[in-house]
Design a protein that fits this description.
globular, 8 helices, alpha/beta, six-stranded parallel beta sheet, 6 strands, about 230 residues, hydrolase
């Protein structure tokens, strides 16, 4: 059953090798508190592309089959890459595609300063640039891509903030509605970031969900003027 605002699928990070617990159920509980139905998707790990993406596509399609509202995704680190992939992949069927995405310190590019572990698990050690580009989020953005909210810390030592900047530039160039937040700190994998300088991301995301995602509900879509929060 969907919440009053629809459904958000939670994709925890872990370098495509595991699911970080603090980026799973605690995040779903936070979203439930905002009025969204949320559930954690434990996509397959330690396996090559497209298995993780196919699992999330299936989960999106199952939620959309209920017809009870938009279906978004939220992902962290490697889960952020997967969430972005679920929103941006050009070969997804309409019922497999996320309606919006929230990406937290995401892995974006598999070509430009890639996260080595995520790239190796997803694509193998000897992948060429053409195949790596095919799963790099910045190369998948199209003018009809869904809205995206992305945040990062400026000194992230694991996945550089340049990943989020690269994605934001691609979204801006394509005219896609999006919002980017950069927070001070040299941290990665902070989840909800309680007691951290990046803690403000949840308030920004909650407001963005209300202004950008909730109006996608059928009963709220007619006649709604949505502010342009593009960067």
């Amino acid at each position: 059953m969907s919440g009053r605002n629809g459904t958000i699928l939670v994709l925890p990070g872990g370098g495509y090798q595991l699911h970080a617990p603090h980026e799973a159920e605690p995040v779903a509980a936070w979203l439930e508190g905002l009025g969204w139905h949320a559930r954690v998707v434990r996509y397959p790990v330690g396996v090559a592309h497209p298995a993780p993406l196919d699992a999330v596509r299936a989960a999106i399609a199952a939620e959309k089959a209920t017809g009870e509202g938009p279906v978004g995704v939220i992902g962290f680190s490697a889960g952020g890459h997967l969430a972005g992939h679920a929103a941006l992949a050009p070969d997804s069927a309409p019922d497999e595609r996320a309606d919006f995405a929230i990406l937290a310190y995401p892995v974006v590019s598999m070509v430009s300063d890639p996260h080595p572990r995520s790239r190796a698990v997803l694509l193998g050690e000897d992948v060429g640039d053409e195949d790596a580009t095919a799963v790099s989020l910045e190369s998948l953005v199209r003018p009809d891509s869904p809205p995206v909210f992305v945040w990062h810390t400026t000194g992230d030592p694991v996945v550089p903030a340049s990943h989020s900047l690269l994605l934001a530039r691609a979204l801006a160039d394509a005219g896609v509605a999006h919002e980017l937040h950069l927070f001070p700190g040299e941290v990665h994998g902070v989840g909800l970031a309680e007691d951290d300088p990046a803690a403000g991301w949840t308030a920004h995301a909650a407001r963005w969900l209300e202004e950008r995602a909730a109006p996608l509900l059928p009963e709220r879509a007619q006649g709604v003027s949505v502010p342009d929060w593009s960067v």
